[in-house]
Design a protein that fits this description.
The chain has 346 residues and is mainly alpha-helical. It is built from 14 helices and six strands. The strands form two sheets. Strands 1-2-3 form a three-stranded antiparallel sheet. Helix 3 crosses helix 5.
């Protein structure tokens, strides 16, 4: 895909100019990349009127190469990826290889992609939920390409029904939380209790540092929505933070400023936190009857955020704690987990 010109804007599409050491102009027709990947420039001479005449003769039979899906994705990724949150970057980088495998072998021109091909992709992928995410990013890239003039083709993802998704509906009971905590090590116990008390996503939880605690508040900026929160340090949260400080003070040597750290004072990463949680959960599942064990094994660390929201009786307060944009979002989030509380007829 040729770059959008920033100079010589008076020239028609595909007509290029190169200047010699003394400023003499030479004109060329850009015929795009060949099969070997090299760009093909056809010389049209150094006389501008004559070059225009030759350009007109050739352009009547010349069709510029169609922009392909791989070219569009590469340009979109280069332009938009650096400014995105880390988690979003990782998600995009995981999705693109699958899109390229389907639309890039051989490279599909944007003009050839139709809604039926989007449906075929959704059926082709065995990971049905991930396929939805991948098509969502393809749609985002396509709209970006339309917006900057790369293509005027209609977005083929519009109107195509995605694979059916079933949201998580697990509510962690107090007894289940206590069972996992009983098998958790100190760093994991700190992380779990903090996750429940402030209701933040695991990634935001790991980002909290000692410097974020000031003036009796924990200052948080959520990575996903960029929402800013200030959580009051009081009650059980105050007791927990004091316990964390005491534990960290007993660690010799250099220790991380991260609030959640391991036994050596090193910040607890994504995979370390998951490993410790899975280990404690599985131990808890082995110590209970089979019918209870199945539920325990289905619990994930992120479910503590939903438990926090569900345990707050005031919906407005739950919305503020989670950083949701609207109460309806919080209401839907909570109802899926615990269900509505209703009274009998009599």
């Amino acid at each position: 895909m040729g770059r959008k010109p920033t100079v010589n804007l008076n020239l028609p599409p595909g007509l290029r100019v190169k200047r010699g050491a003394k400023g003499k102009a030479w004109y060329y027709l850009d015929r795009g990349k060949g099969e070997d990947g090299a760009r093909r420039w056809e010389p049209l001479g150094d006389d501008f009127p004559e070059a225009l005449r030759r350009y007109a003769d050739r352009i009547q039979t010349f069709t510029a190469p169609a922009v392909t899906v791989p070219e569009m994705l590469a340009a979109w990724q280069t332009a938009t990826l650096p400014g995105r949150p880390r988690g979003t970057q990782a998600d995009i980088l995981n999705c693109i290889p699958w899109l390229l495998k389907f639309f890039g072998e051989p490279p599909a021109p944007l003009s050839a992609v139709e809604p039926q091909h989007i449906r075929q992709y959704l059926d082709w992928r065995t990971a049905k939920i991930r396929a939805n995410r991948e098509i969502a990013w393809l749609s985002t890239a396509w709209n970006w390409a339309r917006g900057n003039g790369t293509t005027n083709c209609q977005n083929p993802t519009e109107g195509v029904r995605r694979n059916k998704e079933k949201g998580r509906d697990i509510y962690v009971e107090d007894s289940e939380l206590a069972a996992i905590l009983a098998h958790a090590d100190e760093p994991l116990r700190d992380a779990m209790e903090l996750a429940y008390l402030i209701g933040q996503r695991p990634c935001d939880l790991r980002d909290i540092s000692e410097a974020d605690i000031r003036d009796g508040l924990i200052h948080i900026q959520q990575g996903k929505t960029l929402a800013k929160l200030r959580v009051e340090v009081s009650g059980s949260l105050k007791t927990l933070l004091e316990r964390i400080r005491t534990r960290k003070a007993g660690i010799s040597g250099i220790r991380s400023l991260s609030l959640i750290c391991d036994e050596k004072g090193k910040a607890l990463g994504k995979y370390a936190l998951r490993y410790r949680f899975d280990k404690a959960r599985n131990k808890a599942a082995q110590a209970v009857p089979k019918e209870v064990s199945k539920r325990l094994k289905a619990i994930q660390f992120r479910d503590l955020r939903a438990k926090a929201a569900s345990d707050v009786e005031n919906l407005h307060r739950a919305q503020k704690l989670l950083g949701h944009a609207s109460q309806s979002m919080t209401e839907h989030y909570v109802r899926n987990r615990r269900g509505d509380k209703v009274r009998p007829v009599k």
